[in-house]
Specification:
- The complex is a heterodimer of chains A (417) and B (31).
- Helix content of chain A is 17%, strand content 33%.
- Chain A is built from 7 helices and 29 strands.
- The longest helix of chain A is centred in the first third of the chain and has 20 residues.
- Chain B has 1 helix and 3 strands.
- Chain B has a two-stranded antiparallel sheet with strand order 2-3.
- In chain B, a hairpin with a 4-residue loop joins strand 2 and strand 3.
- The longest helix of chain B has 4 residues.
- The chains are: A alpha+beta (417), B mainly beta (31).
């Protein structure tokens, strides 16, 4: 056993699967951080309701939706999905509006959710948080076509601080997808890459992050026609780079940044906080330039397995178009010229374990049945500027079951995608 | 493009330091 070797993770096989009970403690009420929970875990308010009325999402389904999100990100970066498209004129006429649509990336699994307060008095809503898109929205009353959600719909008539955004307001002008309804309300429409869609009015109201943190006049979408792969969440909050995103709107109060921590297990809790100083132990890499304004680009330049750098052609990442960091994609995608040597090095270190069948996009899987403890090599990611990040054990293995634990990386289709 | 997914971000405090145009990874960030 390599218990004390820093280049190996040694773990108890019985600890591989998450607890079926929520083990997270709630954030202190005076904390300005929002609690982050896995959408499909036992701490999720959405999941709690699902258990009463529907089956759980399988790992294969999560990974298949993850591929849909990745495909959509590629299309958007390539420009194919980024250009505004025009709403069906017949439909626009029926609604009395004429506006372009903004096509975003696929929702995928929308893995992590936070609870936010909207309106005065504030009511709580469970929303997906997404660093890959910008506009925040919740389903609102009155609603022409809403899916069933976790909580009662946001009702503007019950909020003393609600206001519609007028067509001439800068927020409406700045939104690519803006248009006017016949009564001069600013309409928005977002079509996601997986054909999910939200339409509604652009509005403003007080956003409550905690008892002591309120953001008056927060601009968001009040969706009245929403359909797609939203599950039963109440909406989505965008953390992208554009002006309408939550971090951008919060910048005057909190500073122009945010920090989150995603829990190691779906039964644990992390946090999302706006502003504040980065952690003292953080290793930094500069944002990289990128064409798509919503996305955060960074420069991944190398990978180590078990403490040793693997041989990746120097141009592999740059030739592939750089790297985007995304809160909504589950599995890291690498150019094939980087994935192949990672997979080979990992497999060499795992030769003593029985191989298991592939799990959807994950092709390097192991069966730990019969082992009390097991060990895997560490995986470190190297970024431009010298930052080297040694992944947590839970960031190296994706565990479906004890008999099927897989290297949690996947290749892109080809080096140019 | 490559995409750094959320599985690999687990347990890190991922700090989007927009003012300084950089991103930071702090180990054991959830505690």
């Amino acid at each position: 056993a390599r218990t004390n070797d820093p280049n190996w993770h040694v773990f108890s096989v019985s600890s591989l699967l998450p607890s079926s009970a929520c083990t997270a403690s709630k954030a202190a009420s005076n904390s300005s951080a929002l609690g982050v929970v896995h959408r499909h875990g036992p701490c999720s308010p959405v999941q709690a309701r699902r258990r009463g009325g529907g089956g759980a999402v399988t790992h294969a389904e999560i990974l298949e939706r993850d591929q849909a999100r990745v495909d959509s990100i590629h299309r958007k970066v390539a420009g194919a999905g980024g250009a505004p498209s025009v709403v069906d004129p017949a439909r626009a006429s029926e609604q009395g509006v004429s506006l372009p649509a903004q096509r975003g990336i696929s929702l995928g699994t929308g893995n992590y959710v936070v609870s936010v307060g909207l309106g005065t008095p504030a009511k709580q809503y469970a929303v997906i948080f997404d660093t890959g898109s910008d506009l925040s929205w919740v389903q609102c009353k009155p609603c022409a076509d809403c899916y069933e959600q976790q909580d009662p719909l946001f009702d503007p008539s019950l909020s003393s601080t609600y206001a519609a955004v007028a067509c001439g307001a800068p927020e409406c002008q700045e939104l690519d997808a803006s248009g006017c309804s016949s009564d001069s309300r600013c309409r928005y429409e977002v079509q996601y890459g997986d054909q999910s869609q939200t339409d509604g009015n652009l509005v403003r109201d007080t956003l409550t992050l905690s008892a002591s943190d309120k953001l008056p006049g927060f601009v968001f979408g009040c969706g009245d026609q929403n359909a797609g792969l939203f599950g039963q969440v109440d909406g989505l909050f965008g953390l992208g780079r554009e002006k309408v995103s939550l971090p951008s709107q919060g910048a005057p109060s909190y500073g122009p940044g945010f920090t989150y921590c995603l829990p190691s297990s779906s039964s644990g809790m992390g946090y999302l906080s706006l502003g504040g100083a980065p952690p003292a132990n953080a290793q930094f890499t500069a944002f990289a330039d990128g064409a798509t304004p919503s996305f955060y680009y960074i420069d991944l330049v190398g990978i180590k397995v078990g403490g040793r750098a693997i041989r990746i052609p120097a141009t592999a990442f740059a030739a592939a178009g750089g790297t985007v960091i995304d809160s909504g994609t589950v599995i890291t995608r690498l150019p094939p010229r980087a994935y192949a040597p990672l997979r080979a090095a990992f497999a060499r270190s795992m030769a003593q374990y029985k191989k298991a069948p592939a799990l959807s996009i994950l092709d390097t899987c192991y069966d730990f049945t019969g082992h009390r403890t097991a060990q895997i090599p560490t995986v470190e990611l190297a970024f431009a500027g010298g930052a080297t990040v040694s992944l947590d054990f839970t960031g190296v293995l994706y565990v479906s079951k004890v008999s099927q634990a897989c290297l949690a990386f996947a290749p892109n289709a080809d080096d140019s995608s | 493009i490559a995409i750094l997914g959320n599985t690999q971000q687990k347990t890190f405090a991922v700090a989007y330091d927009v003012a300084n145009h950089r991103i930071g990874f702090g180990a054991k960030g959830c505690s």
